[in-house]
Design brief:
heterodimer; A: mainly beta; seven-stranded mixed sheet; 11 strands; B: 112 residues; five-stranded antiparallel sheet
Chain lengths: 115, 112
C-alpha cells in the first residue's frame, strides 16, 4: 500500500465550484505539505502544517485553504475554482526529527482541470 | 526569480551516453536533494547531500554538492531508457529549515 495517498486522482470542474483534495499518510510523519506543479515553474508550496494545530501559508496560498483533520490527514480546498488553478497538485510529508534535511515523500498527485 | 536554476531544461540522448544536470543558486543551502518524477507519479527522493564538496554515488548516478553549498550536479553514466523522467533538485535554504525550495526541473529522455 502507498504511504501517501491522494484523492481524487483526476478531477474536472467548472469555474466557481468548491473543490476539496484529500491527502492521507501512513508514514507517521508530523509534517505535511501541499504543492502545485505547473510546466516550467516546478513545484510551488501552497500550505504546510507542522502538526494538527499548526498551519502555515506557502508562497502561493491565495485562493486556497487547508484543514489538518488529524496527524495523518491534510486536505486542500479551492473555495471558488478558477481556470488558472488548473494544475497538478501534490501532497507530501516529512519527519520533524530530520527537519534540517526536510526530505519529503510525495503522493501520486491530483490532476485538476478547471473549465 | 527562481531560487534554484536547473540546466539544461530538456535533454534527449541515446542509451549508453553520459550526461550531467546542473542545479545552481546564489543562495547557500544547508542541504540539497535530488528527486526523479515519472509521468503520473509524484517525485521520488534519490539522494540528499549535506556537506560542501560531498559526492554520493547511487549505482550509475553520481551527485555532488558544491564546496560553497550553492550548487549541485547529477551525473549519469551509460544512461538507460529507465532513467527517463523529470529530475528535480530541491534545497533547504540556510535559515529556512521549514521549507524546501524546488528547481525548475530537467526533463530527460533516453532512447534506444
Amino acid at each position: 500500500d502507498a504511504d501517501v495517498t491522494q484523492t481524487p486522482r483526476n478531477r474536472i470542474t467548472k469555474t466557481g465550484k468548491r473543490i476539496m483534495l484529500e491527502c492521507s499518510q501512513t508514514k507517521g510523519h508530523d509534517r505535511m505539505y501541499w504543492y502545485r506543479q505547473d510546466p516550467g515553474l516546478g513545484l510551488r508550496l501552497i500550505y504546510y502544517s507542522f502538526d494538527v494545530k499548526d498551519i502555515n501559508k506557502g508562497e502561493i496560498s491565495d485562493g486556497y485553504s487547508v484543514s489538518r483533520q488529524a496527524q495523518a490527514k491534510f486536505s486542500l480546498s479551492l473555495e471558488s475554482a478558477i481556470p488558472n488553478q488548473t494544475a497538478l497538485y501534490f501532497c507530501a510529508t516529512s519527519d520533524s526529527t530530520l527537519a534540517s534535511l526536510n526530505e519529503q515523500f510525495f503522493g501520486p498527485g491530483t490532476r485538476l482541470t478547471v473549465l | 526569480t527562481q531560487l534554484l536554476e536547473q540546466s539544461p531544461q530538456f535533454l534527449s540522448i541515446q542509451e549508453g551516453e553520459n550526461l550531467t544536470v546542473y542545479c545552481n543558486s546564489s543562495s547557500v543551502f544547508s542541504s540539497l536533494q535530488w528527486y526523479r518524477q515519472e509521468p503520473g507519479e509524484g517525485p521520488v527522493l534519490l539522494v540528499t547531500v549535506v556537506t560542501g564538496g560531498e559526492v554520493k554515488k547511487l549505482k550509475r548516478l553520481t551527485f555532488q554538492f558544491g564546496d560553497a553549498r550553492k550548487d549541485s550536479s547529477l551525473h549519469i553514466t551509460a544512461a538507460q531508457p529507465g532513467d527517463t523522467g523529470l529530475y528535480l533538485c530541491a534545497g533547504v535554504k540556510v535559515g529556512t529549515a521549514s521549507k524546501l525550495t524546488f528547481g525548475t526541473g530537467t526533463r530527460l529522455q533516453v532512447t534506444l
